[in-house]
Amino acid sequence: QVELVEFGGGLVQAGDSLRLSCVFSGRTFSWYVMGWFRQAPGKEREEIAAITPGSSTYEADSVKGRFTLSRDNAKSTVYLQMNSLKPEDTAIYYCAAKDLRTSTYDYWGQGTQVTVSS
Fold it and tell me: How confident is the model at residue 27 (pLDDT cuts 50, 70, 90)?
């Protein structure tokens, strides 16, 4: 069974940076696409970034140019570097994993709160 644990959330000011980490365990990390999602109060959950085992990345328009996704397959960890944070980035951030053979994210972390004050 895959387990995902996120680290790194917190309270920051607008313009600050924050790095989230997600540690993967239970299966072979290099078989999984890793994604980051966020959900703000009263809003639907949105996918903001994803990275393949070969480190090809996707970033949503809302974070492109500010957020960078990377992974360390040796450490079974994926990172989300968030720069130039805005109050509208305030949300619970979730790490997720999907097997290369599937189209849906089957495993989710518990989430970590990111709050950006103006």
Answer: very high
